[in-house]
């Protein structure tokens, strides 16, 4: 569980961060007079336009919701019948951290989870799962969609080639392809490509476009690149109680998030701080990284004594389940748009110091 | 459908209103540093304490959520098994305006709706429904709970006597008793009683305590007066994606809402504006009120020409389904904490003027 | 509740009857050797062919299931998304007697029930419900299908004109049209038309074709007249556990039911016995029929003393909820393919005798 | 997929078998006159008494249903809230062969599947899964029950020691313990213990007591050893459409199944035929068993050419997914109560003959 010490030393998650000032200001600015409720407001209209420009897709349809779990579960439920399945990795957030939300929203669809060391799925795994099921007709839950996370739950980033290969595989098997983009921006700035390239041009059909972890208060957007595939989403959002009456305050967050590339600046900052951890911890004797650091999450194995000393010192992070030798402990460090480089350096120095005792 | 004109003349609903400045300020104040996510923050802890004091019930349990539909559907799903039923009125918000959310959250429970002119349920109706079902064993959906709305969907307010009689009836039949308090404050200031008197002292077991319609941005609290009856709620909220990672911003809203009686002042204001409509429109020849006005909703029947003229003039309100004579139209006017008395008077004057043409 | 006396005097329901000897013999005949399970057997293949001939529809798709509730709930769940609604009458079996099965199978769809004296729905009621919902967008559950019962729960039979009018109305509003044919045969022999005329030629898109109440052990068939509308049904049946491994014994029942018009003979017999009740009871002073008797159900109002005496004598029937004067009681009598005319006459005579006391 | 040849050579599954003559005769005997429907008949009453004697548990509650999937899914849905999880093995029938029925019936509960070579779960696996989840609160689906299969999907039989250890573990973690006994009799005669020893005395709280695979037509019984844990089952069965109106014909099957130890004789026969396969195939060069044969299922690896030749010869069995070397193929052979020893010997001889070519 989390150890939480000084606020600046809190690396438990990027969602411990406050709201970016630009976004809070935009919400205050939206607080003018009476306006039509339930998404009939001008901010929500502008948001669709902004996302269409951003993704270079003039007919996409987008639905803002307040949480990443809502975005994922609503997207998946629109893509898969209740008797169908979704191929994902065992460590996928939808499989491990949403208390069964995809199963709930979809009316009982099954997550067909496959093991993947850094939570990156491969085309071969998808095909194997499909063929295994196709042989058994109605007895077995048939895959109807694939869900991948970008960047993944282990901080890895799918390259464009990998995404395209998955996209082709999904299309060949007539599967929808969902991207959980809770850390979309962190992956995007790592790849240096366009949002279109990382999504529909690679075959993604539905995207959970995250903003909360990267500076918003409570705002994500579900984006369908093919509007016919959004059928029923509006109804599902309403009956899941995820349509706000004062929806303008959700849309205003995402508009401000996109404005003047705030989202990209925030993500670059978070990724850069993660690199301080990556470089710094690698250099500490007895410490090793579990994964190459590509986005804003760092997974490291340290001597148990060092981890305990860091906790006692007041640094905040989660211990993580991983294969470690006796006397070792794995931890996860997550940097955010407000993480101070000095705080990351302080943790690295402390780890080195404790390791030398 | 709604006609929306000038912002100040918009009486479509109390949810067209902006956020109360005190509440927005509290959200900005909560925007300090990294804090534990998912409700482990100090604001959320304080909120429970505040509600315990407010309701004079030191062991109640409360869960903030963003929307009234979430509050209602989550509460109901905790009170009723999927094979059970909830007695409510035909016009209950849960029955008509939530796109089937209670059915969804509960896994298919049935709303057992009975007709009620002003959407106030009677003990006799509850007993009749229970007895009718008890006779038919497993073939019929058995009632497990009752849900009432205070103030009701037709702007009526249950008196304390009525509430207590319902409470006793529900208890006698071993039914949970839920109150949809989307407009709780408006009812409370009308009755001039304490929150405890209007809820658990009358037999209410679970409450959707609304704040959004009365000044918050997106915040309600589900309150269980008997903590053992909250079993499973936390899990249900999470899997319904209604637990925010940055939950502090939801809790901060309700804390500010309660502080210095902001919520009561707001409700008194809204109710007072509704009385301007009630008194003013009653005096216009050819106009009649459909219901006594007790809270902040006004239902009136006007000559069709007057309604059309008001719409053309730019007043915002909904036409409402009701029994009217040919040449008449029913409308609903809802006042909120920001409604200007002058705007209400302007509408009344316009109605009188148009009626005289 | 039911009073059950001598077996022959049991008119509680047509499902108290045993299995027709011809059907039991066919099951025994199917009990030969090992055959492919889960519906890959020859009987199931033959059944589809038999139904295609019967309904004059060479591309229909049919799925046998064991119970009428399974047939109805699976059909409805295939026709309506979880966020949709089904227009039916308040007294429809799916609304009152299936413990919420349609809601369960559909994942929470809502039954939009309208009052109808003899449980016959009208085109105007359908249109009114649709228009009422269309105005309110995502807030209201939108109708996606209509379900009617033939013969109805009050023993009435829709005429072909009525069916066609409903069919046209449903098609105009793009609604699926389901017929609960638990007593399909009783209606068919009353009308004297073809199965095709009473179904797809009138606009029915899915049929629960009942056999259990008319002589089978546990067998109904869900028939989709347009095979594309059956999408997902096979999977839904399997996951609802309604695909038998030894499916041959279900299919064999329906094959025997259809062979040599057994089903029509059985239904004619049951209807004829109902006419004995109808004619006989009408002639008893102080007794009146609540409905014209068109199929095999009789609803009558008798003096309370007569009802009690009949019960004491050992006749079996249900008391029924209906508007009666003080001192009166309503009852339902159902005849089946094994009901003896002498037994019906005995009940009529007894009623007359008790009435004269 | 299955290759089906001559009826006697069909070893695809034990559910390809016909109905035992004793059972069919009992159904015919039950076909007398009108009797109360929906389980109010004498056969159903007798069945509960018979099961209470059989299991030496005078207060158990039992519910007959038509299919094993219904028994499992209904049992599980009664044991686990929709937001909970069920620990089982990856190859458990509920996880792989029921098209998501447990998820459907439970309203979205999650199967927490762990790998197990012969599909026998261990106490350590249960504890590990529980501890892993307990750490993560509402974010992770919490285990509420364990489900094991006896005999397992790989033909293994849990010993009494193993069962008791699992029972203690489940009780310690406050988990319900379900046994999928689709092949209960085959396991029981292998162990030579009493039904009580193999169930509640070892800690089993709910049992799917199978009969269909061992001679019945369509009949299983869900048994709750602690009646308070059956709460809601009757309602769930009805709304899942698994309560027959002519329920006597389901209960009569199980009564006949138990009478004069028919079920034990049938199971002994099936197990004995499986031993013919086990001994015979082990002796064929190039053939190996994948599992020790303890019940009536045999898993063997043969040269691909031999498998193809057996198929061509007309033997019926499934090819099975297993780790095999190139040129090899795995198959499953299932014997039933009607399997002829000569037919099993014929297959063994043919395999030897083909292997020698």
From TrEMBL, chains A, B, C, D:
<protein>
    <recommendedName>
        <fullName>L-threonine aldolase</fullName>
        <ecNumber>4.1.2.48</ecNumber>
    </recommendedName>
</protein>
<comment type="subunit">
    <text>Homotetramer.</text>
</comment>
<dbReference type="InterPro" id="IPR015422">
    <property type="entry name" value="PyrdxlP-dep_Trfase_small"/>
</dbReference>
<feature type="domain" description="Aromatic amino acid beta-eliminating lyase/threonine aldolase">
    <location>
        <begin position="11"/>
        <end position="301"/>
    </location>
</feature>
<keyword id="KW-0456">Lyase</keyword>
<keyword id="KW-0663">Pyridoxal phosphate</keyword>
<dbReference type="InterPro" id="IPR015424">
    <property type="entry name" value="PyrdxlP-dep_Trfase"/>
</dbReference>
<comment type="similarity">
    <text>Belongs to the threonine aldolase family.</text>
</comment>
<dbReference type="InterPro" id="IPR001597">
    <property type="entry name" value="ArAA_b-elim_lyase/Thr_aldolase"/>
</dbReference>
<comment type="function">
    <text>Catalyzes the cleavage of L-allo-threonine and L-threonine to glycine and acetaldehyde.</text>
</comment>
<dbReference type="GO" id="GO:0006567">
    <property type="term" value="P:L-threonine catabolic process"/>
</dbReference>
<dbReference type="InterPro" id="IPR026273">
    <property type="entry name" value="Low_specificity_L-TA_bact"/>
</dbReference>
<dbReference type="InterPro" id="IPR015421">
    <property type="entry name" value="PyrdxlP-dep_Trfase_major"/>
</dbReference>
<dbReference type="Pfam" id="PF01212">
    <property type="entry name" value="Beta_elim_lyase"/>
</dbReference>
<dbReference type="GO" id="GO:0004793">
    <property type="term" value="F:threonine aldolase activity"/>
</dbReference>
